[in-house]
Specification:
By secondary structure, this protein is of the alpha/beta class. It has 9 helices and 26 strands. It binds alpha-L-arabinofuranose. Alpha-L-arabinofuranose binds next to loops.
């Protein structure tokens, strides 16, 4: 097939907030224990953090990590996780049916973030707890000194405040599986009051209101407008969560899910702007897509109830999942004028790009690579590409373009990149990219992932699915031509010398 992409500097969508490439660590399964934290592991540093994991997190270049949940946060007493470790209580975690030892908590996470070159996106418990505990946590983390909670932090060995800037007001509060689930009105009220006093405690912070737990949630839409109607003036972002699966083993439909994602994002923007119009407000609410990924391989896997850090949600990803993750991230970038935060859920072991063996090695899952490419090369502004290519129909979708793409331009550093997925299972695409508007930019690297069975996976002894470098595409009369293999992930890097 033939495909054409026309790009222009005027097709700017928006600046890409670096937090677009965030991720998520929950107290769930082996994300913390055996994942980022494993004292006694051969690579553990003086704080018990696995260096092999930190090295891979740095490769992914993750600027912000959400913590400590997720469903877990809705039953969490943050006070259990600070102070002398030997005095910290063990608690039942009702979200995931396990025992939480609390040997890792807020201060350990902040320390870990510093070592991983990330900021912390902290969530407060608005399920079983409320306004009081939320404001205390802000005071503990962000107030300098001379108050009960800030001095408690100092007594725990952290003289300087953590200065955590962005805070999630609970998690998926519309879901019946959530401890302390609420109606939109109940949630709007508690979110408003929590956000208000958290900001009185530290006026520099920003807060994220929980949106629906997914587009399929029965209250999706009304949840957003009703809770925002109440909390609008105090909050800065609304959250979105979405996971996709291919249980029906229908790859064309699985690959088309990014179209649904696009509509989902658009409808949440509409919900925010509807409330803005209704209030005649000058303030715009932006989006925090703080959970997104493929998730289904591990569903139904049994575990030992009330054990500590049993394997949970340990999806092993295949090649088609990597293309879906690439398409999802491209779709998020297409809305970077409104999405300011996004978190690949999650980061280590639990539905994650990084997979460890407790006491053993680590490997990069297939989905590691598209995320790594976008996070490292997709900086600056996103440009909306005009794509002319054949389309296909599948279950639930018509007119799905075979080529999904985004371009990014970082003029300050003279760097540009085009990211494309070829969704065709069997057809190559001859892609022409019109570079008329980009005087001086020349391609210098062409990276792809292709040629693998769509179900191919990586493992500890088999890193089969990984990117490779192609010949640099030719440019003739400002038209770049590249061959995109069937069913492939592609990154074309250009620069201006
Ligand atoms: O990321 C796994 C879980 O998915 C999170 O705990 C929850 O917020 C969502 O339902």
């Amino acid at each position: 097939m033939k495909a054409k992409i026309t790009l222009a500097k005027e097709f700017k969508i928006g600046e890409i907030d670096k937090r677009m490439y965030g991720s998520f660590i929950e107290h769930l399964g082996r994300a913390v224990y055996g994942g980022i934290y494993e004292p006694g592991h051969p690579t553990a540093d003086e704080d018990g953090f696995r260096r092999d994991v930190i090295d891979l997190v740095k490769k992914l270049n993750v600027p912000i990590v959400r913590y400590p949940g997720g469903n877990f946060v809705s039953g969490y007493n943050w006070e259990d996780g600070v102070g002398p470790v030997e005095k910290r209580p063990k608690r039942l975690d009702l979200a995931w049916g396990t025992t939480e030892p609390n040997t890792f908590g807020t201060n350990e996470f902040v320390k870990w973030c510093r070592k991983a070159n990330s900021d912390c996106l902290m969530a407060v418990n608005l399920g079983t707890r409320g306004v009081e505990e939320a404001r205390n946590l802000v005071e503990y983390c962000n107030h300098k000194s001379n108050t009960y909670w800030s001095d408690l932090r100092r007594s725990h060995g952290f003289e300087e405040p953590h200065n955590i800037k962005t805070w999630c007001l609970g998690n998926e509060m519309d879901g019946g599986w959530q401890m302390g689930a609420k109606t939109a009105t109940e949630y709007g009220r508690i979110a408003l009051e929590a956000s208000k006093v958290m900001k009185w405690t530290d006026p520099t912070i920003e807060t994220v209101l929980c949106g629906s737990s997914s587009r399929n949630s029965p209250t999706f839409g009304t949840w957003e407008t009703e809770s925002l109607d109440i909390a609008y003036d105090s909050v800065d972002y609304v959250s979105l969560h979405q996971y996709y699966e291919n249980r029906a083993d229908d790859t064309p439909t699985f690959l088309a899910k990014s179209l649904e994602l696009d509509e989902f994002i658009y409808s949440v923007i509409c919900a925010c702007d509807y409330v803005k119009a209704k209030k005649r407000s000058k303030k715009t609410i932006n989006l925090s897509f703080d959970e997104w990924n493929v998730w289904y391989h591990s569903n139904g896997v049994p575990f030992e109830k009330w054990s500590v850090a049993p394997p949970r949600l340990e999806d092993i990803y295949n090649f088609e999942d990597a293309l879906v993750v690439g398409s999802m991230l491209i779709t998020l970038l297409r809305h970077c004028d409104r999405i300011k935060i996004a978190c690949l859920a999650q980061l280590v072991n639990v539905i994650a790009p990084i997979f460890t063996k407790t006491g053993g090695g680590v490997f990069e899952q297939t989905i590691f690579y598209p995320f790594m490419h976008l996070s490292n090369y997709g900086r600056g502004v996103a440009l909306n590409p005009l794509i002319d290519c054949p389309k296909y129909d599948c279950k639930g979708f018509t007119d799905v373009p075979f080529i999904e793409a985004i371009a990014t331009l970082d003029e300050e550093n003279g760097e540009m990149a085009v990211f494309c997925v070829n969704k065709s299972l069997d057809e190559k695409a001859v892609l022409e990219v019109n570079l008329m508007d980009f005087e001086g930019y020349k391609p210098y690297e062409f990276i792809s992932m292709d040629g693998y069975d769509k179900k191919a996976e990586n493992g500890f002894t088999n890193a089969a699915v990984k990117p490779h470098i192609n010949d640099v595409p030719a440019v003739d009369n400002k038209i770049l031509t590249a061959q995109l293999e069937p069913f492939s992930w592609n990154v074309i890097k250009l620069n201006k010398k």
